[in-house]
Specification:
With 171 residues, the chain is mainly β. It has two helices and 13 strands.
């Protein structure tokens, strides 16, 4: 768990990837900060809209045998925590469990591979009911993420990357 947290905590962006393929990838900043021994604050924002994140969340990593389960929570009234501020005021009473949204990580040769399986992680997107499919690769100084929003009725992709992983590197 210590190595996983060392890799996971910090700030990441995909600046290089964005500049190489500007029509395929938005320039995004990711922040992961430790709140307590068992909770991590997370934030995703477009790099040029740094003070207006499109996603704020809390994660709870749980060791389960040879894997790590990341339990996912949304935050009640997240605006006061933008850019990782006031985290001392963030507690479990502010959190709402996102059922069906746990990502399971397994380690292989110092790299952590994560995946959210199933169709149960509901995401409202532009008024449409979708579910999230997610794959992650986490190494010493990188964090690759493939998020896809799938239609609940047709199971076809509606949002997310169509060109492969977003390749975030540690800042």
């Amino acid at each position: 768990m210590n190595q996983f947290l060392e890799y996971f905590l910090g700030e990441f962006n995909n600046r290089r990837q964005t500049f190489q393929h500007p029509t395929r990838y938005s320039y995004i900043r990711i922040l992961h900060r430790k709140i307590s021994d068992d909770l991590i604050y997370g934030e995703q924002a477009y790099a040029f809209r740094n003070t207006n994140p499109y996603r704020q969340f809390v994660l709870e990593p749980i060791l389960e045998g040879n894997s790590i389960r990341m339990i996912n929570y949304s935050i009640d009234n997240p605006s006061k925590f933008i850019k990782g501020k006031n985290l001392d005021q963030l507690s479990r009473k502010n959190l709402i469990l996102k059922t069906g949204c746990d990502t399971i990580f397994v380690e292989d040769n110092g790299v952590y591979y994560g995946e959210l399986k199933g169709c149960n992680c509901a995401v409202k997107w532009n008024g449409k009911n979708t579910y999230l499919q997610n794959k992650v690769e986490l190494g010493k100084n990188y964090y690759y993420v493939l998020d896809k929003g799938m239609c609940c009725n047709t199971h076809k992709q509606i949002w997310g990357s169509r060109y492969g992983y977003f390749k975030f590197v540690r800042q």
